[in-house]
Amino acid sequence: MLGMVGAPLAACSTAELGSHIDEGGFGNPTAHNLLLQTGQLPFAIDLAQRFNAEVPNTVTFDFDSARLDGQAQAILRVQARWIRHFPEVTFRVYGNADLVGSSAYNQRLGMRRARAVVAYLVRQGISRRRLEAVISNGETQPLVQTQDRERQNRRAVTEVSGFLQDHPHIINGEYLEIVHREYVDSATASTGRRSSGGSL
């Protein structure tokens, strides 16, 4: 995630900073270090904040399900429009579960939810290459602390993860042009920013 902080660089080490804490093999520390070392991290953080402010980043699921209902699909269409507007940017999808069921089962369910979101975004015309990884948090990051069924915990969250390193704008260092590119989408207002106090 963009907020990660790398461990101190060990003397004479040839491994990338943070590579030993790569959770699940998805390259979070490596990606974070690349952004940090190339000076891209502040721009990626700015763009992540903009994404979170301009479109809903979360969809929720029925109990024991990875099916995207109509409201989830509508939210993902809004996400897809925003993502298409910023072709230099990559994203990760984090799947989550509530605390009902075993940890191992919920880890798999979280992955199914993340993959469902990625598959839907791909069907909306987003290159799979830009959907950098799918990651399951399982039941480890509940929004609502309860052992009962809780829809807000059964979610998938889309986040900005960085930039396509071979995109011409990135090669030319045009980060500010990307971050400040105008984006207007009236559909965003109709779907609502996020679920606040209720279930999606």
Set down the secondary structure blueprint:
Elements: H1 28-37, H2 41-54, E1 58-60, H3 70-85, E2 89-96, H4 103-123, E3 131-138, E4 155-163, H5 168-171, H6 175-179, H7 187-191
Parallel strand pairs: 2-3
Antiparallel strand pairs: 1-4, 2-4
For this structure, the CATH topology is: 60s Ribosomal Protein L30, Chain: A
Unreliable stretches, pLDDT < 50, 5 or more residues?
3-26, 186-200
Strand order of the largest sheet: 1-4-2-3
- Please tell me what the overall shape is: globular
CATH class: Alpha Beta
Helix content: 25-40%
Helical/strand content category? alpha+beta
Element pattern in H and E: HHEHEHEEHHH
What is the CATH superfamily classification?
A: OmpA-like domain
Biggest sheet features: 4 strands, mixed
What is the count of helical runs? 7
Mean pLDDT: 79
Please give a handful of descriptors for the protein shown.
200 residues; alpha+beta; 60s Ribosomal Protein L30, Chain: A; disordered N terminus; disordered C terminus
Q: In a few lines, what is going on in this structure?
A:
By secondary structure, the chain is of the alpha+beta class. The protein has 7 helices and 4 strands, in the order ααβαβαββααα.
Structure report:
With 200 residues, this protein is of the alpha+beta class. It has one domain: 60s Ribosomal Protein L30, Chain: A (2-Layer Sandwich), CATH 3.30.1330.60. A 4-stranded mixed β-sheet has the order 1-4-2-3. The relative contact order is 0.19. The N terminus and C terminus are likely disordered. 38% of the residues lie in helices and 14% in strands. The two termini are 24 Å apart.
